[in-house]
Amino acid sequence: MNTRMRRAAVAFCATGMAVSLAACGSAKESGDKDSGDKASSKKGDAITVGLLLPENQTARYEKFDKPIIEKQISTLTNGKGKVEYLNAKQDATVQSQQIDTMITKKVDVLILDAVDYKAVAGGVKKAKDAGIPVVAYDRLAEGPIAAYTSFDNEEVGKTQGEALLKAMGSKATKSSKIVMMNGAITDPNAAFFKKGALSVLKDKVTVAKSYDTKEWKPENANQNMEGAISAIGKDKIAGVYSANDGMAGGIITALKAAGLSKLPPVTGQDAELAGVQRIVTGDQYMSVFKSYPAEAETVAKMAVSIAKTGKLDSSLETSTVDSGTEKAVPSVIVPVVSLTQDNIKDTVIKEGYYTLGEICTTKYKAACDKIGLN
């Protein structure tokens, strides 16, 4: 759990891979949580929810987050709720303008997944001053946010680091050199991923090169990896920590271009289809499976509850988090799972992310058959 989080109650009840949104704590723990915003008068179902997502390069936002949030808001408002959606396409300045647009449109609540968690602080304050509570989604934003939901981001990094050590096996020694391909410094989650990974890697292996990859772009990761290969030597890299699947793709392309006959293990995150297919072939060792449906359904429930009553629904069990400017912000944390060849069926297929046919196309059929994925 990241150091800024103070757990007040269990985040979720889970049975297998299913994440429940029902209450799982004591009556004392599950009372309504006031958002602290002045827009606390009760509203009917005809609410307007602003939804600001950070980018569209990562497949998850258009495939999972947006449609699930829209569907859940419709369900929770008996079809009367409206969603105003904008995507910043990785531009913090554009996202600040989009916050202004949502204020002008007088949305009842704003779901915000920040491009740059510091750059949005002024916009979050403007929204609050206009009576619009802001729910930080997936990335913790600075400013007077009303609530927050995400995954345990340090745990994501720990999961990746532990998997990398397992994949390295006997090569996981202090003299072994690894490369760390971290995410963008503008994303607060990237710092937590890195911190979690280092907590398990720092005394086990040598981090020969470490990069904070601009905008999380695969092409930037590719260039960084080329530099690492040149500096370290292609045959001396025992493993690569990649913070997500997109960058893992760029890393693996660089490793193959260097002429390596056997690739070192490479981590990932997000369970993107291309990442899962690389796991099938063995080019990528693992990804981190995160239940985006559970996260998206949770933020929708938070937003609707705050918009209609000024409080969080009592069935949501919360921890608290320090946003940097606000103390004890109510938060719901969703658990994560290490995704490898061994549990593809029990994660992305079972949860409906992809069908077997989508993963095991003609190009990947032989590799799927080899690992029993058929």
What are the salient characteristics of this protein?
374 residues; eight-stranded mixed sheet; three-stranded parallel sheet; 12 helices; 17 strands
Extended strand count: 17
- Give a quick account of the main beta sheet: strands, pairing sense, barrel closure: 8 strands, mixed
**Helical segment count:** 12
Order of helices and strands: EEEEEHEHEHEEHEHEHEHHEHEEEEHHH
Overall mean pLDDT stands at: 89
In words, what does this structure look like?
There is one protein chain. The chain has helices at residues 60-76, 92-104, 121-129, 153-168, 188-201, 218-232, 245-257, 273-281, 292-309, 345-349, 356-359, 365-370; strands at residues 5-6, 13-15, 18-20, 33-34, 48-53, 82-87, 109-112, 134-137, 147-151, 177-182, 206-212, 237-242, 287-290, 311-312, 319-321, 329-334, 336-339. It has an 8-stranded mixed sheet with strand order 1-15-16-9-8-7-5-6, with helices on both faces. A 3-stranded parallel sheet has the order 11-10-12, with helices on both faces. A two-stranded antiparallel ribbon has the order 2-3. The chain is 37% helix and 20% strand. The longest helix is centred in the C-terminal third of the chain and has 18 residues, at 292-309. With 374 residues, the chain is of the alpha/beta class. The model is unreliable at 1-33 and 36-41 (pLDDT under 50). The chain contains 12 helices and 17 strands.
